[in-house]
Design brief:
Length: 618
């Protein structure tokens, strides 16, 4: 790979963290609206957070501008008939009187992304093409798209009424909302469900809360969404609220607490603690230590305040240098130091050779090595003092992925099939039931909660629930996969970067390699990061999901043409080769040298090792 190609590759990352407008709007004391920016910094073109609803039509003589404004006008609160009617009034301001009488688009809000911008077609026509992203439901979910029409023609003409300019005389038959309007008029607000069966962790369900919802009503709306249940693709992996749970009165906010009054549907102490954590994460109004006061039938209930421990994405500090990094160096697994230094292989004994990829648990308590022996890939697992062959092997094998940020279980792709493996003992393993998948899996990432998966199948991106019955390996199954629109083809890798964000690598329309950071539903996506044609291959794409409260940076490791690089920090920098941190010396030691080394002999230049397949701890 040439230096020019590497400089071009920088375009893949420049602005990646600045292109998604992924803020979360929360209720603050009184009438204050507190913006909790959990995602990357909003990039150019993102509207101020105070903008709540699209404006009505203003006079314009530019055909394409009118259509673009119209496709943003469906943004708003569709949660009630009254609020939906208000949105429709804004939309109708763009139409001629006759078009208003004839237009009947229905109530479904269809999210779309331009694949070609609006262009004039004759004196009155405007053509544009879109990719359908999904249906935005009144409870903030995005469900799979139901429309297939890709090209639309809208007709415009001079307005005969105020404010003049152009109006639309023939709008699309469907209610369309362009994706760029979502970060302008909605806030990303996941609601949290408990994992089904064991209730051991919280699982976020991505939602979009209209900024048109009054601040004092936002908490009520989020709780209503919780009561209504999860998105369809998560349904079997998470538990609904206890039957009969309902809100009593409004959710209120004070300086110290969010107060939620519910019906008395839960009495068990553990269940109340879990419910409190679920509500705290869903209603979390800011990054302060504001607590949650739970009441049942107006009677205060004492619950645990260990809210953070229920979210697997929250970890204790990873240290000043960030999460530990490891890489395969000349066939052995080594820890990557934070600065240039010699890094000896990990003390794993003779098995630490012929390593292709690996996974290291938190604090290096457990290790999984994929070794190539006799032309086959083999999985070896264990601890530093005892690593054993699991018996699992294949012609191809992915890097293992630890579940739940622990050391007891992991997943690995073997010849296109996912297997679950015990991380302790002899490495018992079983294939994950994948009858619902449309083909062989080539890349995989698992969210910190261990219940959501991102899969690359046939060069396309899917998300699916990992269903675990009592954590028995033989019971692991993958729920109905959902195709995620990406705008890329031939995807090469995927990794969770945050609770509800992914980084993907694939080919653009001109076969250039691109990276995007997207939401798990594909609705919010960074702008195209590089127009350059890159004849290169990206593999072993991994990311570190940082604390959702404090971590807003992007931590990536990836192989570029077989060599490991890193991208760290809140500000995207050049991809840095990991080999710079792993320079070894070719000088022989005195004991190994048969001939004394002259004091005047110049030292041999540093040897740059072969570094690939980097990974983060956990």
């Amino acid at each position: 790979m040439t230096g020019l190609d590497r400089r071009r590759l920088l375009g893949l990352f420049t602005g990646a963290g600045a292109a998604l407008a992924l803020g979360a709007c929360s209720i603050g004391p009184g009438d204050e609206v507190v913006r909790d920016r959990l995602g990357p910094t909003a990039g150019p073109g993102v509207a101020p957070a105070t903008l709540a609803t699209p404006p009505k039509r203003t006079a314009t003589e530019v055909h394409g501008d009118l259509v673009k404004q119209f496709l943003q006008a469906a943004a708003g609160d569709h949660g009630s008939q009254a609020s939906h009617a208000q949105v429709m009034e804004v939309l109708k301001s763009y139409l001629s009187p006759r078009a208003i009488e004839e237009w009947s688009p229905g109530t479904e809000v269809n999210l779309v992304r331009f694949t070609s911008q609006p262009t004039r077609n004759g004196p009155n026509g405007v053509n544009f093409s879109v990719q359908h992203l999904g249906v935005l439901t009144p409870d903030g979910r995005v469900e799979p798209p139901r429309l297939t029409q890709k090209t639309y023609t809208v007709y415009v003409d001079k307005s005969t009424t105020s404010p003049g300019g152009l109006v639309i005389t023939k709008p699309p038959n469907d209610l369309l909302l362009i994706d760029t309007a979502v970060p302008r008029y909605y806030d990303v607000r996941p609601v949290y469900f408990l994992s089904s069966g064991d209730a051991s962790t919280l699982v976020p369900d991505l939602r979009y809360l209209p900024r048109a919802v009054p601040p004092e009503q936002q908490g009520n709306r989020l709780l209503e969404w919780l009561v209504n249940g999860p998105s369809s693709w998560l349904d079997r992996a998470v538990a609904r609220l206890p039957e009969g749970t309902a809100r009593r009165g409004n959710i209120t906010l004070s300086t110290d607490n969010v107060t939620v009054n519910l019906t008395a549907s839960v009495s068990d102490a553990t269940a109340l603690d879990n419910l409190a954590a679920q509500l705290w994460w869903t209603l979390r109004p800011d990054r302060s230590n504001r607590g949650l006061q739970l009441r049942t039938e107006s009677v205060p209930v004492t619950t645990s305040t260990a809210y953070l421990s229920k979210n697997a994405a929250v970890l204790e500090s990873t240290g000043q240098d960030g999460p530990r990094r490891y890489a395969v160096v000349d066939g052995s697994l080594r820890r990557v130091p934070s600065g240039p230094a010699t890094a000896p292989p990990l003390a794993l004994g003779n098995v630490n050779q012929n390593v292709v990829v690996a996974a290291v648990s938190r604090r290096a308590e457990a290790v999984a090595l994929v070794r190539k022996r006799y032309g086959r890939h083999q999985l070896w697992i264990g601890t530093a003092d005892r690593i054993v062959y699991s018996g699992l092997e294949g012609d191809s094998m992915s890097a293992p992925t630890w579940l739940d940020r622990g050391k007891s279980k992991l997943l690995v792709i073997v010849d296109g099939k996912i297997h679950a493996v015990e991380g302790e003992g002899a490495g018992a393993h079983a294939p994950v039931h994948d009858e619902r998948l449309p083909g062989r899996v080539t890349a995989m990432s698992v969210a910190p909660d261990g219940r959501r998966m991102a899969l690359v199948i046939g060069g396309k991106l899917y998300v699916a629930a990992l269903i675990r019955d009592g954590n028995r390996l033989s019971s692991f199954s993958i729920g109905q996969p959902r195709l995620v629109p990406t705008g890329l083809s031939d995807l090469q890798g995927v990794a969770f970067t945050k609770e509800d964000h992914l980084v993907i690598a694939g080919l653009g329309e001109e076969q250039e390699v691109l990276l995007f950071e997207i939401t798990v539903d594909g609705v919010l996506r960074s702008a195209q990061l590089s127009p350059a044609r890159l004849h290169t291959e990206i593999s072993n794409l991994v990311a570190y999901v940082d604390n959702p409260i404090t971590g807003a940076g992007l931590n990536l490791l990836l192989d570029i043409d077989g060599s490991a690089f890193q991208v760290f920090g809140n500000t995207i920098r050049d991809p840095e080769p990991l080999s710079q941190f792993l320079v070894s010396s070719s000088e022989p030691t005195p004991a190994a040298s048969a001939t004394p080394v002259s004091p005047t002999t110049s030292p041999s230049p540093p040897v740059v090792p072969t570094v690939s397949a980097a990974c983060f701890e956990g």
